[in-house]
Amino acid sequence: MGRGVNAREAVDAPAVLVGFARALRAAGVDAGPDRVQALIGALDVLRPGTRSDVYWSGRLTLCGSRDDLERYDRVFAAYFGGAGAGGRAVRAAPATRLRVAVRDAGPAPRTGGEGERDGVPAAVLASSAEVLRHRDFAGLTEAERGQLRRLLAAFALRGEPRRTARLRPARRGSFDPRRTVREMLRRGGEPAPPLRRARAGRPRRVVLLVDVSGSMAAYADALLRFAHAAAHGGRVRTEVFTVGTRLTRVTRELAHRDPDTALAAVAAAVPDWRGGTRLGELLRDFLDRWGQRGMARGAVVVVLSDGWERGDPEPLAAQMRRLHRLAHRVIWANPRKARPGYAPVAAGMAAALPSVDAFVEGHSLAALERLAAVVRGADDA
């Protein structure tokens, strides 16, 4: 990367930062619009800033808890490139001045390795990741797939929150007499302000049904990596099944922490990789063996498929109605939905759609970010 950066390569820095915040939200960091505005304001004060300025400004404005720090480091490394886990490479980066808003710059010094990337504005480093977020998985190069895998590894998936019977201390809610009396006794009988309680929340179970048939070959790897991150990044149990000509439960195979090891285990466990599709029959098998017994009951069920049904679509329609009665919500992510002129006229998709609560795209990283938002009940991706 020894060439200069000119005006033609200028990028919209706020758009890049908003995309970075969306990637953080997909990883489980509550980087809302107010925090993004604080980040943009901080970088405006620091302009021109070093790459470490971008790192520390984001870490201080976008993270709200200790748990956010590791997720922030992983997403920053994948999104801006070159930073090691935990931000070590960012902190050690030379203090080469970088401009968040790009005009013209002289030739970047060839210092080799990581320093070479530090001669490029942070917004330019991130612009490739921002472009990648909207690229169709089917058209990615091998290098882009490597960057995509790093971004997918930082994903987290949480089911829509539900209230439980368990009560917890809260600022607002019903009066808690026991805690209030205990507080008064602790004060030696002196009056104490009334304490309150509210029902605790817990994310709903998430069930992912990933189509690995031949028509989904271009998307299966990315979707399974998304499923792997979902199984590891949230606080609620996530169940994963593959569907093709057979139904295979791969939750155990995806328990491996390393994504490549997990996908190799899935490939060995799935006998019908890139075969046909029998969605109606396999959905009935899922409901008979697992769903009816409680796995789908009250859960958020996500079908990741193009909806191409090899058999009669009527059984699929019947099983989708059955699933809809059991689950809290049924979401269908179709990678082909983003194609120009697409309409859900394929027999399988048309049969399933009346029993679907949310029909979204599933062809790109940005589409999966939106899917994660829909799953948690907040369509903000």
Write up what this structure looks like.
The protein is of the alpha/beta class. Helices cover 45% and strands 13% of the residues. Strands 6-5-4-7-8-9 form a 6-stranded mixed beta sheet, sandwiched between helices. It has a 3-stranded antiparallel beta sheet with strand order 1-3-2. A hairpin with a 3-residue loop joins β5 and β6. α2 packs antiparallel against α3. It is globular and about 75 Å long.
Number of strands: 9
User: Roughly how many Å is the radius of gyration?
Assistant: 24 Å
- The dominant shape is globular
Distance between the termini: 32 Å
Average pLDDT metric: 80
For the biggest β-sheet, the strand order reads 6-5-4-7-8-9
**Biggest beta-sheet profile:** 6 strands, mixed
- Could you tell me the strand content as a percent range? 5-15%
Kindly state the percentage of residues in helix. Answer: 40-55%
Helix count, DSSP H or I runs of 4 or more residues: 15
Topology order in helix (H) and strand (E) letters: HHHHHHHHEEHEEHEEHHEHEHEH
Low-confidence stretches: 1-11, 83-120
Structural class: alpha/beta
